[in-house]
């Protein structure tokens, strides 16, 4: 295969525009001696559906933590939902962001009822205690569990769920507070083939819903990109290899550079498949 450099990433303006939901300029995260993110520029606009794709250790989760306002960069500027990170009370910002991540999954008490895992997002807490919920909250929680295909599990305890069922529960929870920004870290990891395809269909339905939040999804696999997602950011070693509209940006060359091996990429409709090219 002839290797050519991936398409250059269009420059990101210094300041966020009126439709900017996430705006990162020169964002670097260092944890001595490692550089987790290296001068990342990224702009996400309202109604866009982004996939962050990269190998293990690329910095995907770190980038999502920044986007969620859970981590501050060592240097660089971050705007989330129009607010400058560092100049805004993140406690006010976080309820506007729905996040499903492995870190959150590990904090849910095993004895917690599944429906309570979902509704407690309304208060931004993990583990229900004495907060007051009304019937509308529970109805909304059941509706979201249904949208994620796990309505039948509402009264089970979280600790008894399979990994795939937990992922779906946390995706429902991430939507509970009607976030303006939805961040999903590897939602399809651990799902079997049928479960993955079912979840992708549900995420596609969400992606085409004009009332759904701006969404960013992290994955290692091009096969897990839901149809109707619009943009991709390719990350390797904390650096952006390419970022932009999916159809133009996700190429075999860009993917090969991202994963450090020569890869072939096939597209069937809006689905992608990648494998080692010999
Ligand atoms: N506190 C830390 N100190 C040093 N290195 C760290 C720290 N936290 C993360 N790292 C390293 O930063 C790199 C990026 O981590 P991150 O979790 O963001 O990657 P990722 O792309 O999400 O990886 P994966 O796909 O394996 O989940 C990894 O090599 C990780 O070991």
UniProtKB/TrEMBL annotation:
The keyword Cytoplasm does not apply. Residues 22-262 form the ABC transporter domain. Transmembrane segments: none annotated. PANTHER family: SKFA PEPTIDE EXPORT ATP-BINDING PROTEIN SKFE (PTHR43158:SF2). GO terms for molecular function: ATP binding; ATP hydrolysis activity. It holds the Pfam family ABC_tran. SUPFAM superfamilies: P-loop containing nucleoside triphosphate hydrolases. InterPro entries: AAA+_ATPase (IPR003593), ABC_transporter-like_ATP-bd (IPR003439), P-loop_NTPase (IPR027417). PROSITE patterns: ABC_TRANSPORTER_2. It comes from Nakamurella multipartita (strain ATCC 700099 / DSM 44233 / CIP 104796 / JCM 9543 / NBRC 105858 / Y-104) (Microsphaera multipartita). The keyword Membrane does not apply. This is ABC transporter related. Gene3D superfamilies: P-loop containing nucleotide triphosphate hydrolases. Keywords: ATP-binding, Nucleotide-binding.
